[in-house]
Write a structure and sequence with these properties.
By secondary structure, the protein is mainly beta. It is built from three helices and 19 strands. One of its GO terms (biological process) is endocytosis.
Length: 333
């Protein structure tokens, strides 16, 4: 189960306060564009989108946009502003760039959180495969378990960091390595990036700079495992966290397929400004966490049980013997 939302917007930085006109690939402007040659922003796509629930900055003339779908505004001097925010309707069968599956497994006094992240082949007709950068996945932790992830240092408290476990190509390679040197089981283990408890989020945060890594292809699974051994004084909440939050960015892409087609400045024909558009998509959605429960055998039962006595072997059956021939009194015998 997944829930996602997408907000699209544009940020502009401009020196001075000129009159600016910006044209987007709005479906209502298709075939009705009238712009100068110097105002066209080169683009490699001819896709058109349907803009819904548009919200504008105070400097934008909203009535003019409703009339001809052109953004006319006078930006504040040397300010970083969000110019426009709107919604689009992506297709329902669109595959998410990063897929996550998380499971709580509660067995007696042992709790395990397991998460698998997968990056499918994200293909774009214009830019090809684009990696996911600055990946952050948050798993909320109950308040009564926080002390398990805190460690006392010289002048403050810190968080337990994850151990990196590199999966080998040989099946059961950890068993062979354990014969040489014992492997210490860590509280948190990851195959990519680093994970630790962050108190400002009240959650275990799994951070990865990039997925897939350099040299890796699509459909590579990255795993996180957190094993907690609770004591008899620890409580297991009736309901654990049901949602995990996923955040990441993708450079040179846009979820809504928005494209700036033209940028023009009034009264600057003799000195045309330099125009540059940088695209960046920021994804944020929540993924459901499943929960499975198992029944562990009591410790005293394992210690008190005795192996059953083996059953006695069956006695061999008596085999019938052939009768002896009768004795004779003749001398020939």
């Amino acid at each position: 189960m997944e829930y996602s939302k997408c907000a699209n917007g544009g940020w502009w930085w401009c020196a001075g306060m000129p009159d600016v006109e910006v044209g987007l690939n709005d479906l209502r402007r298709q075939g009705r564009e009238v712009v100068g040659r110097h105002d066209i922003v080169p683009g490699a796509t001819e896709e058109w989108i349907r803009v819904e629930n548009a919200q504008f900055h105070a400097c934008v003339q909203a009535d003019q946009f409703a009339k001809d779908q052109i953004l006319r505004f006078k930006p504040p001097d040397a300010c970083y502003i969000e110019l426009m925010r709107f919604r689009v309707r992506p297709p329902k069968n669109r595959e998410l760039p990063l897929q996550l599956k998380a499971v709580w497994c509660v067995t007696g006094n042992k709790v395990e959180l397991r998460a698998d992240a997968l990056v499918p082949g994200f293909a774009s007709r214009r830019l090809g495969q684009v990696p996911c950068e600055d990946v952050s996945v948050r798993f909320p932790i109950p308040e009564c378990w926080i002390y398990l992830f805190r460690v006392e240092k010289h002048f403050r408290y810190g968080s337990v960091k994850s151990a990196h476990r590199r999966t080998g190509k040989i099946k059961g390679i950890e068993r062979f390595l354990g014969a040489v040197e014992p492997l210490q089981e860590s509280l948190i283990e990851v195959t990519s990036g680093q994970a630790k408890y962050e108190h400002q989020h009240r959650a275990i945060v799994w951070r990865m700079p990039r997925l897939p890594k350099e040299g890796q292809g699509a459909y590579t699974t990255h795993a996180l495992v957190c094993r907690m051994a609770l004591t008899s004084y620890d409580q297991v909440p009736a309901e654990l966290a049901r949602w995990a939050t996923v955040e990441f960015t993708m450079p040179a892409t846009q979820v809504s397929h928005t494209t700036v087609r033209s940028v023009s400045l009034q009264n600057h024909d003799n000195d045309p400004p330099e125009k540059y558009v940088r695209y960046l998509a920021r994804h944020e959605y929540t993924v459901g966490i499943e929960r499975t429960s198992g029944q562990a055998a009591p410790a005293y039962a394992l210690a008190a049980c005795t192996p059953a006595a083996p059953a006695p072997a069956p006695a061999p059956a008596d085999t019938p013997h052939a009768p002896a021939p009768p004795s004779s009194d003749s001398d020939s015998d």
